[in-house]
Amino acid sequence: MAKVGEGDARWIVQEREDGTNVHGWHWQERDVLKWSSVRLSELLGGCKILNGEDQIFINTTTIDSVTGEALINNRKKKLIPSYELAVKGQWTGEIKDGSGTSVLSTTGTFQLPYISDENADEDPELTVSLTDEGSAQQRLKQAFVNKGKKEIFKAVAQFVKEIQAGGPVKKSGDASAQPDKPTAVKATSTSGTAPSQANGAAASSKAKSKPAAKSDSGTHTIDLQETFYARPHDIYECFTQAGKIQAFTQSPAQAQPNVGGSFSMFGGSVQGTYKELVPFSRLRLDWRFANWPDDATSKVEMKLEEPEQGTTILTLHHTGIPHEDKYGNSDVEGTTRNGWQQLILHRIKAVFGYGL
Description:
Elements: E1 28-31, H1 33-44, E2 48-51, E3 56-75, E4 78-96, E5 102-116, E6 127-130, H2 135-164, E7 192-193, E8 208-209, E9 213-214, E10 220-228, H3 232-237, H4 242-249, E11 254-255, E12 262-265, E13 270-278, E14 282-289, E15 298-308, E16 311-321, H5 332-352
Antiparallel strand pairs: 1-3, 2-3, 3-4, 3-7, 4-5, 5-6, 8-10, 9-10, 10-16, 11-12, 12-13, 13-14, 14-15, 15-16
Helix pairs in contact: 1-2
């Protein structure tokens, strides 16, 4: 047996001045709570629970909070997730008559109090509450409970699958290769609340969509076209009046509709600036999500045409969409596209009755 100080240096693990965890040998952990908050908000916000079955329409809207802790541990290139999270969100419900006229609407909250690696193979607990506990509203609540569990649990299962695969940590297992360089730790616990992100849960839409194009700069472009049974000024106001924005997003919104004025929607998850305003005809905007890299701002151009009275065609051209958000999620183009279709264009139709 070698004496102290006489061991073979090839077998001695030494501290490196550059902090590199060679071959992922040492135990490391990375806080992925922010990524978890954004991802759960994307998966659970804007879920369509019921879409006309028995004349009932129910959707989740925004995610108010994601609290707890979420870590990715790395040992010998093996990624081990550890998380305990609680989610709170909002939902809306509506009953329509045979002609499509709303006869009852309500709002409420839903909670997933315990999403954990300990029960990853089980469906989490789901609680649903109403703002107004009337008997008619109870029908909508029960419909959410009966039909919503499948969609909610499906979204949670997708999150569990992604975090088990490493979440924002690269599949190579080398956590040190990430932009936020981790440090070797002994033991730590983190908790907090990350801002919720409105986004586009995948769902069908009648918007005409072209395949995304990727530019030489590494950004993406989206082209969409949507037909509304409304006048151009009706659609124009949906992007320039805070009250209308708040109505169809079901979340806080601000708008200063003058050149250089700012706007925000979904509680600040979408932010931007008005660059050009041609009343009832064209809008040009600087547009970004709060979870995009700090230097990423995209360009949106919307044109409104009325080929016949009472029918407005919106043509949207969205450029400069980054490939990844600041947390390493690479499906920014898909999230943005679904957000336009499901959380904006479709909701404008549904809330204001401008189409199906």
